[in-house]
Amino acid sequence: QSLMETLGVPRIVAPLLLLRGIDCAERAARFLTPALGHLSDPMLLSDMDKAVARIAQARAGNEHIQVFGDYDVDGISATALLIRGLQRYGLEHVSYAMPLRLAEGYGIRPEHVDAAREQGVNLIITVDNGIAAHEAARRAQALGVDLIITDHHSIENGLPPALAVINPKRETENYPGAHLCGAGIAFKLCTALNGAPNDLDIAALGTVAD
Known about the structure:
This protein has 210 residues and is α/β, with parallel strands linked by helices. It starts with a helix and ends with a helix. Helix 5 runs parallel beside helix 9 (182-194), helix 7 (110-118) packs parallel to helix 8 (134-143) and helix 9 (182-194) runs antiparallel to helix 10. Strands 2-1-3-4-5 form a five-stranded parallel sheet, sandwiched between helices. It contains ten helices and five strands. 46% of the residues lie in helices and 11% in strands. It has helices at 2-7, 13-19, 25-32, 48-60, 73-89, 101-104, 110-118, 134-143, 182-194, 200-209; strands at residues 64-68, 93-97, 123-127, 146-150, 164-166.
C-alpha cells in the first residue's frame, strides 16, 4: 500500500516490486527510472583488468581474435555485442564460432580450439560458456592460444586454466551485478574496453531472453 501511494503505481505493480526485493520507495524509483549512471564499474569483475590488457595487446599486434559463443538468444546476443565492441575498440580481425546444437551440444571443446588455431587465431574469448571447459583451456595452453572466458553459469569444478575468467559467480554477495547473463558480461567487457556503454539494446535482448 505504501509503495502504491508513494509511487502512484497500480496495485499489480507494487507486489511485483516486492517480489524483486524492492521494498522502499527510493529503491523502487531507481528501479523504475533506470539511468546509465546506475551501471556498476566493469572493473569490479575479477580478471577484467587481465582481459582488457590482453585485448589491448591483440590490437597492438593486429592479432586474430575469435569470439566463441552459444546458440541460444543470450549467447548469440553476447557474440554480436562483443564483436561490435571489439571492432569499435579497433580490432580488425575478429571472427566468431559456436557449437552445432544437435551435433556438438554446449560449450567450447578442444576440437574448437584446434579449428581456431588452424585459422590463425591467437586469442579466443568465450561468451555465455566456458566456465566448465577445462579440457579446452588445457588444449589452448598446449597450442599457445590465449583464452579469456566470460560466462555466468555456476562454477562447479573450479576455474579452468585460462588467461582470464570473468564470471559474476566469482564475486562476493555484495557485487551489484550478481545476476548478469552472458550478454550482460559481454556488455561489461565492451564498456571496459571502450570507456562507455554501447549496444544496450542487444544486452537487453539477451537479458530478457535468458
